[in-house]
Each structure stands twice: as C-alpha cells, then as structure tokens.
C-alpha cells in the first residue's frame, strides 16, 4: 500500500510539515516558538506545490496530537481540521513523543526510546517506546505527566523497561532536568532529539492507516495529559 499522507505539527517550539508520496518525502521544518499560525499554512502550500498535488488527492492528514504546549497543540489540530474538512480527507492523530522515538531511530537506529518533554510547573510528559519488526512502535510505558522525581520509581515497577537494554533518551525533559537520566538506573544514550518533527509522524500515520485508525475531521481530538490544569489557567476559569 502506497499512501499519500500530509503531516503537520505545532505542538512544541518546532513548526513542521511533511508530505509522503510513494518513496518521496518533502519536508519543511523551522523553530518558530511564537509564529506557528504564520508559518504553518505557507509550509503546507509549499510542500503540496513541490509535489504537484492537492489536498483532495491525499489519503490522510496526520497531526501532532500532543502532548506539548496547550496553545501549540490547539493551533495544530485547528489548522489540520480546517484543511481536512475542506478537502474531505480523514485525519490521524500522532503522539508527539512517539514521533520523537521514530526520529531517534531515523538518526541513530535507536529501537528503544524514552521520550520526555518539559511540561513546566515542575513536571514532564513521559512515554516509553520500542520499535517493532514492521517499523511501527509499541508503547511500553503509557504516556503520562508527572514530577520528574517520581519517574525512577515508576520505571522500577515496569518490567518492559529493563536495565539490561540500552535506552535512547529524546525530548526537552532531559536537559530541563539534567540529573534525571542518571537517577533511572538504566543504560541510556543521548539521541540528539529535542523536538518532534512531522517527517517522523509519516511512518506512524502509515501504520495507523493500515489499522484503520482514522477519524473524520470533526472527531479529531488532542491529547494534553494535563488538560484540566491548562483549562483552569484560562481567564475566567476556576
């Protein structure tokens, strides 16, 4: 099955778009912490124009569903919904942390990855992933938001994350808490991955398509992990 998939992500400081058609991948990626709304649509237009295709010719539109910045996740899903609805194509939500695991594999051939994003408020978003033989990824530690000092205890209770194996670490959570990795009693290696990129969402979206895990635009939803806190921080909310 050859899929034509567009992926967009604005969940973190990084803003990225990628288009997969056959064996060709076209990528636009730029660090733009406060310019996502300005950058993302021109990026989409650019990759479509380079490929010579329209949105209606695509099989799906993948989007970074989070976790990440509350505002960034909302921007990404809102723009993706508008594009998918207008073109009448299905959507696929992709974990930003699973995308970082795939990026670690793309860069370093890492097959076991611990992803952590700095969630502010003395917390991290965390998830553990293991690559399968078919190129998809299995979640071996459920995605969660937690204080970094609680991570070692959680991992010690997870038999799937063994100290006998080497684990690559990815995401902004590790440099935000420089002593965190050494507290885990695991063999860890640096992956060089800090932010998710849409290019790495394409392979995950491909496997999701094969499993039929698509939704109509009006049913696409984000994953905040800490949505109740973010909601309370909005003006006028208790």
Question: What's the quick description here?
Answer:
With 238 residues, the protein is an alpha/beta fold. It has helices at 36-51, 70-87, 96-108, 151-156, 173-176, 198-210, 227-233, and strands spanning 4-9, 14-21, 24-31, 60-66, 91-95, 112-118, 124-131, 137-146, 166-170, 187-190. It folds into 2 domains: 4-96 and 196-233, ATPase, nucleotide binding domain (Nucleotidyltransferase, domain 5); 97-190, 2-Layer Sandwich (Nucleotidyltransferase, domain 5).
Characterise the protein shown here.
- With 238 residues, this protein is of the alpha/beta class.
- It has two domains: 131 residues, Nucleotidyltransferase, domain 5, CATH 3.30.420; 94 residues, Nucleotidyltransferase, domain 5, CATH 3.30.420.40.
- The chain is 32% helix and 29% strand.
- The protein is built from seven helices and ten strands.
- The strands form two sheets. The protein has a five-stranded mixed beta sheet with strand order 3-2-1-4-5, with helices on both faces.
- The radius of gyration is 17 Å and the shape is globular.
- The N and C termini lie far apart (49 Å).
- The C terminus is likely disordered.
- It comes from Enterovibrio norvegicus.
- Keywords: Acyltransferase, Transferase.
- Belongs to the KAE1 / TsaD family. TsaB subfamily.
- This is tRNA threonylcarbamoyladenosine biosynthesis protein TsaB.
- One of its GO terms (molecular function) is tRNA N(6)-L-threonylcarbamoyladenine synthase activity.
Which labels suit this protein?
238 residues; alpha/beta; Nucleotidyltransferase, domain 5; 5-stranded mixed beta sheet; 7 helices; 32% helix; 29% strand
């Amino acid at each position: 099955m050859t899929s034509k998939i567009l992926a967009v992500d604005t969940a973190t400081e990084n803003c990225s778009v990628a288009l997969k058609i056959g064996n060709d991948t076209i990528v636009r990626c730029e660090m733009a912490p406060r310019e996502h709304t300005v950058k993302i649509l021109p990026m989409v237009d650019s990759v479509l124009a380079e490929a010579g295709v329209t949105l209606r010719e695509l099989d799906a539109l993948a989007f970074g569903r989070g976790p990440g910045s509350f505002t960034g996740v909302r921007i990404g899903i809102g723009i993706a919904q508008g594009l998918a609805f207008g073109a009448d194509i299905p959507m696929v939500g992709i974990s930003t942390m699973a995308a970082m695991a795939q990026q670690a594999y793309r860069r370093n051939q890492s097959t076991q990855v611990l992803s952590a994003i700095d969630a502010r408020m003395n917390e991290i978003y965390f998830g553990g992933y293991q690559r399968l033989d078919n190129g998809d990824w299995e979640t071996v530690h459920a995605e969660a938001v937690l204080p970094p000092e609680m991570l070692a205890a959680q991992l010690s209770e997870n038999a799937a994350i063994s100290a006998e194996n080497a684990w690559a670490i990815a995401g902004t959570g590790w440099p935000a808490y420089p002593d965190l990795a050494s507290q885990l009693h695991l063999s860890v290696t640096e992956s060089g991955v800090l932010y998710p990129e849409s290019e790495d969402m394409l392979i995950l979206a491909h496997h999701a398509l094969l499993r039929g895990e698509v939704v109509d635009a009006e049913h696409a939803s984000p994953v905040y992990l800490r949505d109740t806190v973010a909601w309370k921080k909005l003006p006028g909310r208790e």
